[in-house]
Amino acid sequence: MARFSVLPRRHRGLLADQVARLQRRVLGEDPGPIARKTFDRALSAVFLAVLGLVILAPVFGLDASAFTAWLVFTVVYVPPWEVIPMVGRFIRPACALALVIAYPFYFDNMFTIPIFGAFPDVATGVYMLVFIMMAIGLNMVVGYAGLLDLGYVAFYAIGAYTAAWFASVQFATHNIHFGAVGVGPTVPGFHISIWLLLALAGILTAFVGVVIGLPTLRLRGDYLAIVTLGFGEILPQIARNGDRLFGTGFNLTNGPNGITPIDSPGFGNTLHDITGGILPASYQAAINSDNLFYWTAVVLVLFTIFCSVRLRDSRLGRAWIAIREDEVAAAAMGVPLMRTKTWAYAAGAFFGGIAGAYYASFKGSTFPGDFFFNISVFILCMVILGGMGNVWGVMVGAAFLSYLDREGLANTGAWLNTHLGMSIDVPLYEFGIFGVILVVVMLFRPEGLIPSARRKAEFEEGVHDEPLYDVSH
Amino acid sequence: MVTEARRAPLPLLRHRPSFTAVGGVALVSLLAIWLFVNLVKTPADFVEIFLIGLTTGAIYALVALGYTLVYGILELINFAHGDVFMLGGMVSATVAGTVFGLTSGQSGVVVWLSVFGTLVIAMAFCGTLNASIEFVAYRPLRGAPRLAPLITAIGMSFILQNVGLAWKGPNFIEVVDVLPRSNVFSIGGVDYEWNKLIVVMITVPVLLVLLWLVERTRQGKAMRATAQDMDASAMMGINVNRTISFTFLIAGALAGAAGLLYALYVTNIRYDQGFQLGLIAFTAAVLGGIGNLPGAVLGALLIGLIQAFNEGLSWHAPGSDWTQSIVFAILILILVFRPEGLLGERTPEGG
Fold it and tell me: 0.90 cut: is pTM over it?
């Protein structure tokens, strides 16, 4: 299927020839693989420097912090750290992780990115991490198993409402406290520790995923998409109308007013005192509240990445990929289709639920208006832009798009309006921009920005994805 | 011999009442009882709501046919279709109000000629738009994995919504109110207004023309052949690409007609209404049996009636808050338990 990359490939070929010639001149005829890779990395560092110094700096001005950032990048990325025995291959990820964790301390000293504006603040960072979690979860369904899920927002909603039900004053006739922090013992309602609720939300959401999945996963791809879309529309409507559920007067979701406030996570006064104040008693009450939420979100994302990568390489994950590539062949090889697909659904839902619960606790509220179909497409867009099936690509896509959603589009719009003399409310057209991204990526680079090699091959060679169960019973 | 040996146990299986059948019968009888009680309690309201439902159903039918035509030929859910409909409504509103200069409450021959002119323009606009969408977003992906065109369809839908948003802004826009609201008849407290009848009067000829086009013309034959087997029709000398473009053109034109009727009947329209209505119409197409033209009309009328009954009846109706949920619940139930729809035949190829 050459049509996907007729133009880009020809140019890439020319560029690759030049690079190969340069490499031969610098490294000689037969360099080892390590030297070759180091050369490639050095080349990208040089490329960044040229981009920054020659193209961007004359227009937007130069900042010392930009130089520092480039220096850190070069030192971490370029040298062949992997030659060091034992610890070598951990150096680069460890540095990256350290940079992410230290982000709250240096973000406001950073340079202004041309057009996009300042670096995102910590609250936006939490938002980005939550959506990275959700995108990785959706990637298990769409990327690994190849099932298009257009109702992922339903899992987000279930997670958020789980946190809201069990950590707020919503059910004021009960008074059950278990490990909640920052709430007096006489406050009515369920107050369960958020840590437990994260797990509960994940499990509950995975269960709902199985319940939705069992009858529907037999359907072929596009029918499945529309059924998930249906669930994604029904659940938020239940949330919207749930304050007077079918005239029974039972207030399940408090309707459009939403449930607020939701308890904050924390470790309680006892642990706080024992550890000498290292573990915060309650996140909300702490001075550096956003930072605490940020670091916890980093931990959750690490957990999600770990699970996602381990699942992908497990027997189950290989079964997902087999189903995605050829359902008939997979079934013939003894892959149980229904069970495997249901697990994909449950696994994807699990992380959506955790992310939803955590985000609800961070915001301290949940409203039915947070769960529109748009959000499903938003998360899908992250997966597709980043590269279906590749955790790292999906993370980049999620980080970029959620940043655009929170700060980037507003900044870019402001920049465009002041410099080009326009007056367009850019954030208003956010979803139109996402629509353009979907179409452009699918037409010109269907494997995404950072593709997994396997997925790329599928898009270029085509797959035999005729379903085995054809709308059958 | 082998065939007979395989067929022997089937009659035994067929007599076992399945859970699906029992559940379906129970659901339908509950629905019937609910409707009957409402009919006995408030007969005049019931008939009036029935007529409202038929009118909405007629508009849904036009949109549902677009989904069914496209699905029949490409097996693609054209998510952008509902937004083509919405743009059709906006174009109609603009043309009727600005180009033909109609004002609310106006009447006379001028109105009829203007409405007819607007209809032609809206159909031409939406047909062209839909065919260009196919050309830009779906044609390059023929042969790609099935998910690819589905994703571009969603993308196109969002793009069109934002075109509507940029053009008319985020609020409802008023459409000139020219359809007369005087009664056609008024019997026993049941009023039937002209605007409802006009919607039906425009829909029916459009449907007949479509049926004639698909069943009687050479192009229609090409469409049916392409829907059945794209490769074989190409071998028989049918220009498959042109046939598919033509199908999108027809589907778009139907959406344009629906857009005009909706705009004039409801007299307001907003950029995000197309998507919701499109999903309802898609449900109608699935309910009737996707790929089946009479099925789409039947499904649309049923969905229109269900929506009207749900929103209008007084005795134990869930109300308009739940319309969306009910429609999607129907969609899910149909897809899970009877994916071939009410009129569809289950074929070896499925769909």
Answer: no
